[in-house]
Amino acid sequence: MDVAPLDPVRERAILDATLELLSEMGYDRMSVDQIARRARASKATIYRRWAGKPELVVDVICNHFDMDTPRPCDTGSLRGDLAELVGALRETAERKHTLIMGLSSTLVSNQELARALRAHMLTRDLGGVEALLERAAGRGEPARSADTARLAAVAEALVWHRLIFVGPPLDDAFVAEAADEVLLPLVRAWATEPTEPAAPAEPSQP
């Protein structure tokens, strides 16, 4: 289906309205009529740009929903930077908690939305975590063998598990515990993993 480009201001209003309604009522209860009213746009305008509600929400998730990892500031130590990372992820999770919960059941039942989100997660920017590890390695701390994507995933899992299953507070004590008892030992363990021994050289021919 060919789509017609919209004025950027009008498109932004529609995307913002979609995000607001997703947070307030979830995907299933949200309608294109409600999006149009909230954005002060006509349904015809929306359907000229998107085929329907699924395509609009996929666009919001993939292109207008910031899922990149934060870039923690340089504290001068690996431990401090890891704590900064957890703190930044905590702020992001608290800000987007309602939206994520509004989408959670739909992501189970609607495979189109689930595939779109997974595809976006594979291409997101992990530069903040990469920079954190590079700084640590430059200081001589054991971080060279750490897996950037796995470290980001573990840090995010700690925050979201606490927020959804355990509950508040996500306070400074939680941040310190996550850095000291999980992330820092994990990075150090990766750094001390034995490497595969080199294959023996072939004997030279006389």
What does this structure look like?
The protein has 206 residues and is mostly helical. The protein is 70% helix and 0% strand. It has helices spanning 8-29, 32-39, 43-49, 53-64, 78-109, 111-122, 127-138, 148-166, 172-192. Helix 4 runs parallel beside helix 6 (111-122). The longest helix has 32 residues, at 78-109. The relative contact order is 0.12. The mean pLDDT is 85. Residues 8-68 form the HTH tetR-type domain. It comes from Nonomuraea montanisoli. Keywords: DNA-binding, Transcription, Transcription regulation. Pfam families: TetR_C_11, TetR_N.
The run of helices and strands is: HHHHHHHHH
Compute the separation of the termini in Å: 70 Å
| DSSP strand content | under 5%
- Unreliable spans are none
Find the structural class using helix and strand composition.
mainly alpha
Q: Specify the helix fraction band.
A: over 70%
| 3D shape | elongated
How many E-type strands? Answer: 0
Question: Mind telling me the C-alpha Rg?
Answer: 22 Å
Could you tell me the mean pLDDT?
85
Helix count equals 9
Number of domains as seen in the coordinates: 2
Report the CATH topology name of the largest domain: Tetracycline Repressor, domain 2
CATH superfamily of the largest domain: Tetracycline Repressor, domain 2
Biggest pleated sheet:
none
The CATH class name of the largest domain reads: Mainly Alpha
At CATH's second level, what is the architecture of the largest domain?
Orthogonal Bundle
Features:
206 residues; Tetracycline Repressor, domain 2; mainly alpha; Arc Repressor Mutant, subunit A; 2 domains
